[in-house]
Each structure stands twice: as structure tokens, then as C-alpha cells.
Amino acid sequence: MTRKYRLMSAGTALAALFAATAAQADGGHVFNRIASFPVNTNLPEGADPATETSSEIIHATGDGMKLVYSDSPLGGIGIVDISDPANPAPGGFIPLEGEPTSVIVKDGNAFVGVNTSESYTNPSGVLKTVDIASGAVVGECALSGQPDSVAISKDGAFLAIAIENERDEDLDDGVIPQMPAGTLDILKVSGGAVDCDSKISADLTGLAGIAPEDPEPEFVDFNDAGEIAVTLQENNHIAIVSAATGAVLSHFSAGTVDLESVDTAEEGALTFDGTLSGVRREPDAVQWLDNDRLVIANEGDYEGGSRGFTIFSKSGEVLYESGLSFEYEVAMAGHYPESRSGNKGAEPEGMEVGTFGDDTYIFLLSERGSVIGVYRDTGAEPEFVQLLPTALAPEGAVAIPGRNLLAVANEADLGPDGGVRSHVTIYAYGEGPARYPMIVSGMENGRPIGWGALSGLAADREKPGILYAVNDSFYAMQPTIFTIDANETPARIVKATRVTREGQAAQLLDLEGIAADGEGGFWLASEGRTDRLIPHALYHVDADGEIADYVPFPPELLAVEKRFGSEGVTMIGDTLWVAIQREWADDPAGQVKLVAYDTKTKEWGAVAYPLEPKGEGWVGLSEITLHGDHVYIVERDNRIGEAAKLKKLFRVSVSELKPAPLGGDLPLVSKEEVHDFIPDLKATGGYVVDKVEGFAIDAAGNAFAVTDNDGIDDSNGETLFLRLGAMDTM
Description:
By secondary structure, the chain is mainly beta. It contains 4 helices and 54 strands.
């Protein structure tokens, strides 16, 4: 008889979470994700579901019941019905000629900047007014060039459009000046109609110290006084412009930042031991905090990127500089993108400011870390509140305080490669606790304990709540055993033990499994890649991570080896049992090996394990764990989002684990389904992630699972640490 854990269902969990948002702010309030809307479900009728689509800039109707996002690849704007925000629904797609770059909504109209440029040297664009209810284009104004950001004044009387006239990055290594120069277009609005003849093109030349003849405006925002803040990203400059006259009221350099203990090299390790001096901020998004203060996201472009955010007075005084504090929070949540260390790190790009209850919040979007930093504005140094998980590559955000909601557009669409689609993610504001992150690290010697790509999980044999995890080959130069204290919420990585050979970081490992040896050390299973000289092997390490013994797979296994090898290891008495992920050359279709190695006699053997039927993609194993009279095995497909069908836990009786010699017929074990992980993965409000890779049962009999975030490589970086309850409910 198959039994399930007694867990709250995904739907019940979300309903309870959203119910908590009804209360107004008073303290102890946080944001939690409640839904993720896949943008490809909003394709026009008859379109190929694999068509690339992307939500980029996003805004909301005045009643907060609909979201409108720009979709550059598809050439239009999409609408999402959020009347039930926990269950967003497709609201239709409105095609527009040209490439939409930004959208803002007011009084039932969407004002869309559309790029119609023939070339970098002959830029052009239009502002289109779209009636959201009918989908009709009801107005169009010619712009001074290629538009980027669009904003509307608080009273709805003015529109501002950053005319970037972006540079050709392949010309002279992208160095500016590259003419024609950009400008800032300002248009009057009356009764929802744009007066095209009122256009003012504010002259921004001659302001910046960098390429003053070629300003490249990036982002615009209005304060309540009718003043426009505009970032000149490549010029590393900020200007404050009068909406009424187009006059430049003030302007100043965005300046530079010195960074110490920063990760600057893409070497397959999280080190945070570098130094960068005089880094230009090169801001992207800008938002007013009030009529006198503004905050910028320091994404960087071709020369800079200081990895944080800065608050300025409108006269140019630096009131607060975050330095590396945001990037450290990203790293401690497992979202740091090591593959971007040599460039712009976590790369804060988008930003939103909104007032919920009595508090004003800054929402800082990490494009490469795919996470949102939430800060409370105090009037002085902002207070860090939390990190929010999002889909891949957040680009735009809109706060909807009237409904206690925040929505974020995530632009990356990896659907053609079988990856995650572009999503709109929705968050509700209500009483805590925060549901994410589920696992974090801390600081050590002034630097964050970096982590990611957790691929195997094991429990301490004696201490309840103490677990051990390993990272995989994404961090090839820093193989690590992480000690996790799951007695805390969120679970906390309290120690990082490096796996070493003769005191140096061990190379040519792809750690996928870990088991405590009962004597303070560990057995580690490494998945081989012979084309990369990584052997299929078992490693015995001491408590300090030093390799004491190396056990390569025997010739009988290597004769039939394939790339997808060891994915978990557990110890039964003196015998190690290794779960092989997928069929090797001698396996019947739909069967994989559980390989046995007797640490005393040095003998090898195996049994066969029956896989679930395949759908799209492949099916394989991810983990094996001993508990009582059974081993527990994670079996999954390699699908993501709505395509994911199989993420389950099975068990096999230890009495059936009677290994036969390798190279011959293997006894086929029977299995029993224990738990379906998909409801757990959906209960977070996100899409179903691909890799449930670690499973362990602690000394108190409680079960835990963890997902592998692939080192934030074509991944949103999300790591789900699942607390599944007591195993005595099985």
C-alpha cells in the first residue's frame, strides 16, 4: 500500500498565504510569492506553443486587476488577468508593429514605446496609445529616435520617454560616443490622449564627463513635483529635468565605488577575495523615494557596475551606498552567479518603489541572480527586509499597494532549449513569516559563505536536524561538504568543508552523493565524465575533507559506462550502495543499476531498479538513502514547469538488495511509491523546478529534500529545502 506524507496541499497553502494579505501593515509583514504566470500561455490563438516570448516591462491598470507587459520578441503587449492574483489567467495579446521597449498604463490606456529603427545610425520610434479594453491603437506619436523607458507623471499630465539611440556593441568594442545622440522626449497628456504637437526634446548633451556629446538615456521616473529623473547609463550620469519646460534643473555624475572582498574571477569557485577600485556605478533603473531623494540600480554597462544601489539627493549628494551588501545577501541565499564574477556579478538592473501600509519599500531586481532584494526606506540607511525568489532574469516590476501586491516581469525564455519559459511572478504583502529563502549561509571572516548546486544530501547519524550536502562540478575548483542546521528556519549552512587532496582543492570531481561513514568522515560519489577526464569513483574523506581513499569503478562497469553515472550513495553495514542515474549500455530499457561496493571485501555487485515510464525527455534517479528496513530513492524526469510530470520518492526493501556479479543478469527489485514532490514544488508559488537531487532522513526520523539550482546557469537560482515530516507516517 502506498502512503503519502500528510502535507498541506499546494492550493490550500496558497489560499492560506493570500488570506494573510488582507490585514494592513502594522509590523511583522512580509512579501511572499503566490503565483507564477507562464507568458507562453498568453500566445495569440494558433501560435506555436514553442514561440519565443518575453515579459519585460510591466505595469498595472488603475484598479490593479490587470497587468500589462511589453513583449519585444513577439512584437506587442500582453495582458494578465489578476482579479484572482493567486491564479492569474491569460488576458490576451495585442500585436503592435515594431519592437515594444516599455509600457506604462493610465486611465485604461497603455502607452507603449516602440522601436522602429532601421539601424543604429538611423534610429526611430513611436509612442503608441492602446485602449486596453478593445485592444485598438487609438493614438501614435513620432519620437525623436529609439525609445527605451517610458514614465507618466503622477497627475497623468506628462509622459517622459528616454530616447536612448543605443550604441552598436560590435563597433569599436561598444565605446561611446556613437552618434546620433540620445535625448529625452516629453509629451503632454489630456483626457488620456497624447498631444503629439506638444513634444519637447530635452537637450542632455554637454552634461556628462564621459562622452558628453552622446548622452544615452536609459530610465526615467517622475516625482510628485513634476520633475523627471533620467539615468544616462553609459555616460555614468544622472539628470533632473522639468516636465513642464524640458529644462535641466540639476545634473551630476553617478560616481564610482571601491569594492573589497568581491568575487572577480569566473574560476568555478566562490571566493570573494578580490578588489575593484573606482568602479563606475553606471545606473540603469531610477526611482524617486520622495521629492528630494532618488535611488538607482547600479547595473553597469561596458565599463562599470558596482553591484548594488545608491540613494542620492536630487542635487547629487550621496546619501547611502549599499556597496557589496546586496550581493552578499544574494550569495548567502545561494543565488550568486559565479559565471558573471568577471563582469557585473549579481547585476542589479530593475527597480520599483512602493508604499505598503506605513512603509515605503525599495525592490531591487538582480537580473543574473534572479532574485529581488526588499528594503524598507527609513529616511537614512535602508533596512534589508528579505529576498524574494523570481523566475529567470527579472526585468521590470510594478507595486500595487491598493491590493497588497507586487508583480515582476521575467524576460528570459529558454523554451526552445527545453528550459524555463518567461514568467510574470506575483507576490502578496501580509503577515509573516517569509517563505523564502528556505536555506541560507552566513558570513565567515567578513565574506559570505558562497554555495549553490546542492546535489546530494545526508544526515548526521546522531544529531537530529544536522545534515550534510555536497556541490557538483559547477564549482569544479571548490568541491565542498556543507554542514546544514535544519533546526533553524530557514535552514542554515553553518560550515563549508573543502574536499582536498594533500591540502589543495581536489579537482576532477563531480560530487553527486554523500553518506556519513559513522566515524566522522564521509563517503562521496562522483559522477564521471571520461571525455573530461573525470573518473566514475567513490571517495572516502576524513572530517576535514581530505581524501583518504579513492575507489574507481571496476572494469566491468567502465566497459558499459555512459555519462550519467552516480547520483547518490548510502551505506548499509559495510556496503556502499550507489544509485546510477540512467541506463548504461548493458541495461534493459527502463532499468538502471543500484551498484554495491563492499568496503571490507572490495567486491562489487548490483541489482536492477525499474524506472517509471518515460514521457518527454528522460527519467532517472537522483538519490538513495537508507532508513530502517528500506532505501529511499528519488526518481525524476528532466522536465521543468508545466512539462514536469515525475518528481517522486520510492522505496525498496533492504531485503531485496542482494547484489549479483557485474556483467551478468541482475535481479530486479520491486519498489513502492512513497511521496510525490510536485505538489511541494508548486506550493511555493513558483514553477516546478527540474532537479530534486538530495533526500535525507535525520536522526529523529524527519525527512528533508533539496533541489539543485545548477549554479544559476540557465537557472533562476532557486533552491527549495523541503521539510517533509516524520517518516513514521509512511
